[in-house]
Amino acid sequence: MTLAGAAPDADTRVSSSGLPGDVELTDSAAVAADDGALDPRAFYDGLLAELAEARAGLPADEASFGAHKPLATAELAEWLKFQAWYELQAAHFIGAWLAETPETEIFCALARQVHDEARHYKIVMSQLEALGETMDGWQPEPEWVAWIEEFYPAGNDTLERVSAHNITGELGAAQGMEDLLPRVPPGVQKAIGKILPDERFHIALGRTTVLRYATTADAQRRVRDRVMGAFALERAGRAAYERRIAALPSN
Q1: CA-to-CA distance for 204 and 227, rounded, in angstroms?
Q2: Predicted confidence (pLDDT) per residue in 163-212, tens digit
Q3: What is the reported pTM?
Q4: 3 has which bridge partners?
């Protein structure tokens, strides 16, 4: 199974490394309430299956950045700019969640994730600079603002916030990067290789959050709404990327 579809097996632990006060996630599940809720583990697995089925049916321009084709230099620069912006936004909105995250284990994991997103931003910016490019004058598409600046930061509680970003968002990010690997230069491949291991931890955090806190029928409904809402915005965001690429002078 590729990273984009990977999830830790039951009763495993996922740890960070190389940071003070290493963060460790346990994979134990809470008991579902007697209100029609599914077992949290069954709910999570079913949600991932639904998401995978939806992704499998996407047209090429929504299934992958660049529609599975090799990236020309101008398009590579555009993807790097988008990715740098995304990593920076993620560091901002996840950092802002910390003041409103009372769950200790999730708080510590999100604090580690802020560090990861900042590090990813630096990695991506180094590749952009190697192309002789900067972010000067660059502006996101409206669909990207709706998806990343508005939808992901929102949510009424930790469960809604983390499920949308760390399930849909991180699975989609990992899938997109894996798909790009054979289509980008070696230096960018190496950069992506530094980012992908962190995504496994972020995906595991989404799983842990759902297993612990999506224990009622209402909570599971809210999680599904956020996950599938994020997926709809991701689709629109990738289509907007294709629109921008088609408008580049070389195209």
Answers
A1: 15
A2: 999 999 999 999 999 989 999 999 999 999 999 999 999 999 999 999 99
A3: 0.87
A4: none
Alpha carbon distances (Å) from 45 to 14, 20, 31, 67:
18, 32, 16, 28
Q: Which residues contact 196 (CB under 8 A, 6 or more apart)?
A: 3, 174, 177, 178
Reading the block at residue 220, the tokens are 């599971």
- Token pair recorded at residue 49: 């299956």
Determine whether 196 is exposed, middle or buried from the number of CB atoms within 10 Å of its CB (0-12, 13-18, 19+): middle
Residues 6+ apart with CB under 8 A from 202: 113, 116, 166, 170
Residues 75, 248 contacting (CB under 8 angstroms): yes
Domain 71-246, second-level architecture: Up-down Bundle (1.20)
Phi and psi at residue 149, to the nearest 5°: -85, -25
